[in-house]
Design goal:
It contains five helices and two strands. By secondary structure, it is of the alpha+beta class. A two-stranded parallel sheet has the order 1-2. α1 runs antiparallel to α5 (about 80-90).
Length: about 90
């Protein structure tokens, strides 16, 4: 009998290059960056996969953090918003 896949349907993930981009363009530090940096599974793909393997999770549905909308100046500028989205989705 085939095993039913285990799916984590709500997984936070903070891409460091995206967070760095937001900080650079906004001119201030991200509120949760210190927290993200303290939990490698939130920022490091390899660590996330190790955690998934440890708990038998087959698929993560990622909820990227922080949201682009958390930086009004960036999401209001079409060019910056497009660049941010490309970084976040890379």
């Amino acid at each position: 009998m085939q095993r039913t896949p285990i799916i984590d349907a709500y997984t936070h993930f903070a891409c460091p290059s995206f967070t760095n981009f937001l900080e650079e363009k906004s001119g201030h530090s991200m509120v949760f960056k210190k927290l993200f940096d303290m939990i490698p599974e939130l920022t490091n793909v390899e660590k996330r996969i190790q955690l998934m393997d440890e708990f038998g999770v087959d698929v993560n549905c990622l909820v990227p953090l922080p949201w682009l909308e958390s930086e009004p100046l960036l999401h209001a500028d079409e060019n910056l918003a497009i660049e941010a989205c490309k970084i976040a989705n890379d």
